[in-house]
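Appendix C reproduces, verbatim, an entry submitted by the partner laboratory led by Prof. M.T., so that reviewers can inspect both the input and the predicted structure.
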Amino acid sequence: MHALLALMREREVEAVAVEVSAQALSRHRVDGIRFDVAGFTNLSHDHLDDYADMEEYFEAKLPLFRPDRAKRGVICLDSPSGAIVVDRAEVPVVTVGTPSIAADPESASAADWVVVIDDERAAGTTFTMTGPEGSLTTTVPVIGLTWPPTRHSRS
């Protein structure tokens, strides 16, 4: 990771998006890298096999939101773990929520930036984000569901 980032810097790359896993943090693979922005989308069973339980896995993700790792954070409030990250983050954070798919629609509605899914089709998903600085409507080429959206079940 460090060598690749160094090469990118030599080649004047101005921005890089990196997925930083809990394992990367636990195994010190990103030590010495301070991110401009760290993001938290959700907590799922993706890498649970490396940790004793979900709590240990969650705790392994939290160091990304310390000043030695990131300058600021963007936290999704669509899952209950997002609110915990907000409470425990040691850097300034901005929140994002999508009430139509959130486990707690009320919490997602109170986010700094609220996402409303306008249309979901095979060609892409159109959504509007509204926040303190106005709103933005865009379409991303990510396959979506058929309109109208159905509320995702949570277990």
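The longest strand covers residues 113-121. Additional entries are available on request from the coordinating office.
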